[in-house]
Predict the structure of Bifunctional glutamine synthetase adenylyltransferase/adenylyl-removing enzyme.
Amino acid sequence: MTRTATSKGGLVRLGFQDPEAAQAALAGLGAAAEPLLGALGRTADPDAALAGLVRLRASAGDDDALLATLVEDDDTAMRLLGVLGASEALSDHLARHPEHWHELRDPALASTRSAAWALRAALLAAVGADPDADVPVATRPDAEAVDALRVEYRRLLLRLAARDLAHRLEVDDAAAELSDLAAGTLEAALAVARQRVPDAGLARLAVVAMGKCGGRELNYVSDVDVIYAYAPAEGADEAAALKVATQLASHLMRVCSDHTGEGTIWPVDANLRPEGKAGPLVRTIASHRGYYERWASTWEFQALLKARPVAGDLALGREFVELTAPMVWSAAGRDGFVEDTQAMRRRVLDHIPAKEAERQLKLGAGGLRDVEFAVQLLQLVHGRADERIRPPTTLSALAELTRGGYVGRADGEALHAAYAFLRTLEHRIQLHGLRRTHVVPADEASLRRLGRSMGLFSDPVGTLDKTWQHHRREVRRLHEKLFYRPLLTAVARIPGEEARLTPEAAQLRLAALGFADPSAALRHLEALTAGVSRTAQIQRTLLPVLLSWFADAPDPDAGLWGFRRISESLGATPWYLSTLRDEGEVAERLARILATSRYATDLLEREPQGVRMLGGDLQPLTAEALTEEMLASASRHDQPEAAVRAVRGIRRRELLRIAAGDLLGLTDVADVGAGLSRLTDATLEATLAVAGRAARTQRGLDEAPTRMAIVAMGRYGGFELSYGSDADVMFVHDPLPGVDPQAAATYAQAVANELRRLLALPGPDPALEVDADLRPEGRQGPLVRTLEGYAGYYARWSKVWEAQALLRADAVVGDPGLRQRFEELIAPLRYPPAGITEDDVVEVRRIKARVDSERLPRGADPHTHLKLGRGGLADIEWTVQLLQMRYAGSVPGLRTLRTLDALAAAREAGLIGDDDAAVLQQSWRRVSRVRNAVTLVRGKPGDELPHDFRERAAVAAVLGYPPGSSDAMVNDQLRYTRLARNVVDRVFWA
């Protein structure tokens, strides 16, 4: 042995991490050490390979024969040392069964894959069953058979791993052989089960593989998913056959998964069967038919895409597959197909532990499941009409999709390369400990071993990570492009080797992705991408990802149609398309808004410049900033109509800001209400100035004869406006000294009427309805009163309901001094020092009962009406207001305009229990959010949950529910209001 070869530096260059230990071990090999150094240096972990060899030599006894063979036969050395360096578990197996190293001397391992029939025969023979028998039955003693099955399985797995590591098998070849090995193991386990079960011949049992085993793409370690079908043997009683079939299936699963002295094989998972864990373990073909025709979910048909009979009665298994195949290929036409598939993918992502998300090889973004999901969805969409693309194996299906033009050639090749790399990495990770894991380890030693096992000997850690991240990015990119890019080629002439769908195939794909009118969607795509202009080129770049966002949203048709209208309005504007192309957040926000909210879409169409705003802060602006901008803008116009149009234009922009923040989950519901209220403050302040200027001009006045203020009332006064709310107000004025009272009143009336007229004019923005019906005497009373007039009225005529209305009176617009004096005037009325009398309490309850019986719209459901229903906003707000009227005189915290603040004060004062207060708070927030969401989705105010399924799904999306959860949203809503009503019954109605 040369000194250079075994020097510490030489060993480190070969990949040894502990050269001192390696020198000692090599010395023990004698003359064989130096000839084996080259093979050891090509292993995944030379230290582990050498240690494994030393241990195997000690176990084998005939160590001279072992070393001599390795020195003389490079192929055997490469196979054995490759296994010892890559798989700690198989190294342990060889130490327990050293005779198995001879398996690796087989020259056929270099070129010949083990045939499925040969694997089955070997495994059956291990348990003493006749491979040629129609119904093989084990003959070895039970415990001996179970152990023998494990040993034989490991022997065959050892041969496969050696071929895989030494001869670099294609990943689909290794996966296919692993699947065949699993099928043979299931057959042998069933043979053992037949030996255990008395009268086993009463039932025919078929084992149908699902998932990766069914698709012949199994991992080294994986649950083997199966479904069982049975039939009574000829002349057998059906009940007895069911019992026998169930026992056979149960024993088969235990034979594979039980731990014995020889370890375990893998779990057999039957949870993909009808009804999952809750359903019977075995069913007849007829029972399967009934379930799949009536009850099965979309994901169950997607799972059946890979169904394959692998053990037991294969004829019965083929009957099962023939039964379910037509259902699989019609699944894309089922109602809710898109929602179901999206929900299934999201459930997978949601269940990834946060600490594993970035290292998840299978389930994470850019992982194996993304490729498999994309390929299967394309198969389900187009496989109904094209049988060529139905292969159950992912890479075979991808090849056929590429060959058939459903996936572009370059994309198909890139996706194939990424999937093959990720699967190979998954195999190497699992092979080390023969453990079921899909997480890429983070420690350097493991990454070095993995990199070297994949042939990356130069900087194995860095190169592995770089290659992995590259393929992850490719999968993410192609996962989007795979579905949506080919749609553009159906309507636009795009040069290159792109997938070219026919118009019919494109419509099928659009329909499967959730578009209700695929032909219209294709027309929109054509209009957006036609031609050779720069605009069309950018649109072709943008649309694949935009389409993916539209498809994830509740109303893809509305999203695409809205995008077309906005693009036609802004397409020639230099910043528009470049902003969407370069700022992904803006494009994603725009897509989500367009495909969810008619209200926001209408605002965007009228204010297309608002697209720019989506890239910035969407929190509502302050009233001061808005008032200053509105007053400045209005002052630039002489005509009152033009001035208020400018004011309303700013309001329209800010409505869009608030709606966008709400839709994107960036603005809390209380902040939405406050933002809308402050926006109304600014709008009224600026419009009051314009109306006053117009009234003075009309009368030839240099200055106003009276001071004016506007008092916000109701939800406006409480900072709790919703998108569809009117502005409930009262007008108050105070003549200047020496001014004729009648002239002052006439002027004030003219200003109030002009303000209401200007804000109600038709225009491109939502009108602001100014409602003064809460004033004294309602519509019968004067529109504007003096401060003394209000004082006189309240002193003589005020009713308890008017005191209740004043709880949310906020003199917020107009002359500051007049506003302050008005609030000082009403303070004793709304916050009486001794509280209201018991008679007043009775009167409040009487009025509430009348509201409940008379104001609920005809035909409305009292359980779901958001404002007036049981547990709705009115119930909660009346309850809080009654507490304010009774106790605000002595509890300062209750002297607030806002419902939630008053509720918190009541809880702190002990007027309501913590649990009850929490229920009312949560319910108020919930119902307010739902009410806003309904308006955002429908584009008009609404106090009932929509009946249209798309609108209901959109409301659920605005509330943060995942796709397919609209029923859960409704159930949650009923629960919130039911709990709130229980509290209202106790606190308000006593």
About this structure: The radius of gyration is 38 Å. Residues 336 and 916 are 39 Å apart (CA to CA). The longest helix spans residues 669-699.
